[in-house]
Design a protein that fits this description.
Rossmann fold, Dihydrodipicolinate Reductase, domain 2, 3 domains, 9-stranded mixed beta sheet, 3-stranded parallel beta sheet, 13 helices
Length: 385
């Protein structure tokens, strides 16, 4: 906030819109409900725009921003379909401004350390990578069972949650993907697994609330509850207000009686150029949120547990072992959010694109991999890219 000033806000929720505007001194004339209205009623009013709309509105918003000449920072994924994604990337090729996709993981210091180790040549060539994203059970329930990303009518799980991970594989390997296969399904969060007598909403007298780990009383009234989860419900002033909201909103539903259809576990196998392979696993049944990356190379191995915060590197000849603790891995996305925002501001202020690790054209392969993985999963075949 000390390096940039917000001059307009577009937000459909009136309370959120006005609260943000008041915090940043944005006048009523620069508060808008929809992106289309904002673009229609204003010329270019700022240097840059941050686009964090739902995926269903991303294509039109990005094209509107390009037309007005804004430097762009856009949330991932770029679109709901491969066609939308390609339209955005094609438009971006003709755009001379700064255009950044929020693949924050490239900016996490731990992955920066790993990339420098790979590029040093000491460990030889990459043979294969094993990478996993382990969602905590409460994160899975909030976002992908009850929440905003629970149905593939918008985007499949592999795109909504894991195009970060597809991108980090592309970043570390540095080669094009050529073939993808995938398996996975929704196994647990289904009506047949509901406790006997469980109502549609947790707070409607569920007989299983004491033993159920997904009870809203345990997930949303815990001292460790992520404030971002509450913000998705609107401006909530106190626990009493939260309690009343959860009686009838989507986050108060029984996890076994929702309209969810996205997978709760999935594996993806990718072959890259020169025979390099990678395997990715996503599962929503874990105690902690945790990403783990293991890289097997011709002269060594690199291991990284993002939650532990340590990079462990080994070489075969000479025999060596090194443990590195990267700095700055605190805050949202282990510091990646702050770093990518700083890089974007630096790029906008100077016009120098070298600050950016995630230009839009580099997002194509990660999106191709995600769409191919979903196609493979649903069609039961290997997809050639």
């Amino acid at each position: 906030p000390h390096r940039a000033k917000y001059v307009a806000v577009v937000e459909p929720d009136e309370k959120k819109r006005n609260t943000f505007a008041q915090e940043h001194g944005i006048p009523a004339s620069m508060r808008f409900e929809k992106p289309g209205v904002f673009f229609a009623k204003t010329d270019r009013v700022a240097d840059a725009i941050v686009i964090a709309t739902p995926e269903t509105e991303r294509l039109g918003t990005v094209l509107g921003a390009i037309d007005k000449g804004y430097h762009i920072l856009v949330e991932k994924p770029l679109g709901c379909s491969l066609d939308e994604t390609i339209k955005i990337i094609d438009a971006a090729k003709k755009f001379e401004g700064i255009f950044v996709v929020c693949h924050q993981m490239r900016h996490i210091s731990g992955y920066s350390v790993i990339k420098s180790l790979i590029d040093s040549g000491r460990f030889g060539d990459i043979i294969t990578i094993q990478h996993s994203e382990n969602l905590s059970y409460h994160h899975m329930a909030h976002s992908y069972v009850r929440g905003l990303f629970n149905n593939d009518s918008m985007t499949p799980m592999i795109l909504a949650k894991s195009c970060h991970d597809m991108d980090i594989l592309c970043y570390l390997i540095g080669k094009r993907p050529v073939r993808v296969s995938s398996f996975g399904s929704l196994t647990y969060f289904k009506e047949q697994n509901a406790p006997k007598g469980a109502p549609a909403y947790c707070l409607d007298g569920c007989p299983a609330y004491k033993d159920c780990p997904y009870s809203v009383l345990k997930i949303y009234f815990n001292e460790d509850t992520d404030p971002a989860c509450i913000r998705q419900m609107g401006i909530v002033k106190n626990k009493r207000e939260l309690f009343e909201l959860l009686r009838h909103n989507q986050f108060g539903r029984c996890v076994f009686r929702c309209d969810n259809n996205v997978v709760d576990h999935q594996v993806v196998n990718i072959e890259f150029e020169d025979g390099v392979t990678a395997s990715f696993q996503m599962a929503g049944h874990n105690y902690f949120d945790r990403r783990i990356t293991k890289i097997s190379m011709t002269n060594g191995e690199i291991y990284f547990d993002l939650t532990e915060g340590l990079v462990k590197a080994y070489t075969f000849s000479p025999l060596s072992e090194e443990i590195i603790k990267p700095q700055g891995m605190t805050g949202s996305h282990m510091g990646g959010d702050k770093i990518i925002m700083d890089a974007f501001v630096d790029a906008v202020r100077t016009g120098e694109k070298s600050y950016i690790l995630t230009p839009v054209e580099m997002s194509l392969d990660s999106h191709l991999m995600a769409f191919a993985a979903e196609q493979s999963r649903t069609q039961g075949r290997v997809i050639e890219l």
